Predict the structure.
Amino acid sequence: MKVAASRKEHFNAAHRLYNPQWNDEKNSAVFGKCSNPNFHGHNYEVIVSVIGEPDPDTGYVFDMKLLSDLITEHVLTKFDHKNLNLDTIYFQNLNPTAENIAIVIWRILRQHIDSKYELKIKLYETERNCVEYPAH
Amino acid sequence: MKVAASRKEHFNAAHRLYNPQWNDEKNSAVFGKCSNPNFHGHNYEVIVSVIGEPDPDTGYVFDMKLLSDLITEHVLTKFDHKNLNLDTIYFQNLNPTAENIAIVIWRILRQHIDSKYELKIKLYETERNCVEYPAH
Amino acid sequence: MKVAASRKEHFNAAHRLYNPQWNDEKNSAVFGKCSNPNFHGHNYEVIVSVIGEPDPDTGYVFDMKLLSDLITEHVLTKFDHKNLNLDTIYFQNLNPTAENIAIVIWRILRQHIDSKYELKIKLYETERNCVEYPAH
Amino acid sequence: MKVAASRKEHFNAAHRLYNPQWNDEKNSAVFGKCSNPNFHGHNYEVIVSVIGEPDPDTGYVFDMKLLSDLITEHVLTKFDHKNLNLDTIYFQNLNPTAENIAIVIWRILRQHIDSKYELKIKLYETERNCVEYPAH
Amino acid sequence: MKVAASRKEHFNAAHRLYNPQWNDEKNSAVFGKCSNPNFHGHNYEVIVSVIGEPDPDTGYVFDMKLLSDLITEHVLTKFDHKNLNLDTIYFQNLNPTAENIAIVIWRILRQHIDSKYELKIKLYETERNCVEYPAH
Amino acid sequence: MKVAASRKEHFNAAHRLYNPQWNDEKNSAVFGKCSNPNFHGHNYEVIVSVIGEPDPDTGYVFDMKLLSDLITEHVLTKFDHKNLNLDTIYFQNLNPTAENIAIVIWRILRQHIDSKYELKIKLYETERNCVEYPAH
């Protein structure tokens, strides 16, 4: 049986939900106040889980210090204290919903974590709203 | 791979654990202080997860505002500031344990959420006790 | 300068807000759903702070184990898994608002804690509503 | 002795720290990444405390439902899902630091709460950074 | 469909990460400050989940009071306010990483919980680091 | 009126409560399991509050980045992943109770924060036990 080892980090970012193929009226109807043209923001909490067998020499599935460093280097430096729509390459043509942010983080980190490990992302946009990818 | 999108809501309710087929002595032996005849109560936290594919137009698996409205309309208006045993139709013949409350909430919401989505309920009765349905 | 030492405990209780000098209509107008005749309930969290000088021999202002025991004996055994209106002597003629519950707990514990210490009670009725007595 | 009664609410907003009398270099030196020109954002939590004597008829210092409504009407509708710098009148010439946001909220609510009550604002900008006004 | 019922408990313990087959230099290189020779410590939170069908007579998957008692008797009395390396039999030859602590707790409790139930352990070493066993 | 600005940090440490002027029996009678000879440990959370007037140019009472750096340099590097009794100079002759740890942190930081500011320390030893210095 495998063990999941998880690390929580956070970033503070501005964003706006917006589909450029729709007019402002439709964006406002679908996304409500989340589509405010001047943006709003969140304290995002991201929990990254790496699933595998503990190494017999260390007792670690994955070194949490290393996982924290990978998240910092590849995610936080790009997203923390940024405008997700304007300051990142990832959401130029992709709506920065919690779902899409989680999928983007998964794709970024997947390149830096050996494929022998499963990878899961849980993202809290607020204390009440969160997403998990993949769901199972 | 699918995404789980989750919304947390809460309700404050009174309840009493009690099996009408048992006498008071047996109810007290099995349920302890949870069977206090004059009821006790909890701040219940319910986390509803909807699992599916993000919609390509919105980036949402499910609109969290709509999910919140569905929970409010179909669950909170029935359970919040109520006595679960006396004020609801669901626990007239069903013991209002956390397990049964979660199953009842799942059955209520299942009727209002398209079957293309999986549905999960996590219910905290206290900070230390919670249940999840279905478990997998 | 003095140190405040605080211990958090909790109890789960049913209650109803109700002024017996008012008719049902007025109770409902003033207290809303908190006046539901069949009660509702909460997971109350109570934080008891004792303020004084650390003892030079122990380094304690007050032994937290002893404080926990005092709260358990004099408060939790009376309030936990009870109906505050029906099962306690304190709220027979006193409305069990958070304010009044905090004052009652302060009066109970004041008798068991040496007057050389200041005593403060913070009571969370929900995660969003709390009271503190005395305020300063 | 008085009782403090507190209500927690939240709003999600974008902001940027910036002193218009300084050039970009100095703003960046003083405010670091908090001065990102395209803004960043937070889930702000605001705890409003009203301090006074419990009313003998209700047992309330202040009706928490009414306090929640006042915060919603006078603060949340102005700040929630907004850009504090661009979308509000309060921070056109005032840097939206946590300190200044708390003082602004205090001044707004002070006009709607009877002067017989003391008023305090605690504002969490992140889980790790918060301010309280007035401090005593 | 089955229900998962979970109970959270905690213990406060000292530990040191150390592989006796490595010299001090290598232990320090791999485990960093977690290998401090004089130990450090944590407030561990352990969430034990029992998965099964609710009993039709009680509405319980598993009595949370009984689960709490089992955790206390078989885990907390051995680990709480102890040095995991020096005061327990489990980590004499096993590095007390979060992964290994979770596996040890699973093996201990597995002997006391009927095999008709699935069993899962989630262990928080800090608010930011946690493990889950089994992962699925 | 002044503003309090607060920063939360944490450290993980081992400690043992022990009065060298008492024999083991008395230490055990007074401190119970907290006097375990091989130590136990905690995730300490420390909240440092600086009280003063917001600077008109920055809107800050105190730069939270600078406060975090001061806490890290003068407190965390000395206490984090250490044995408070054996690895620090502060508790060679002082019992490392929460009260004494808070007073020591206050004395350390007082030297690095201008006397025009008031300084307060709140220290959580566990989620349930905390101290505040000074109390007022």
Summary: The CA atoms of residues 122 and 132 of chain B lie 4 Å apart. Chain B has four helices and five strands. The interface with chain E takes residues 17, 19, 21, 30-32, 94-100, 102-103, 127-136 of chain B (CB under 8 Å).
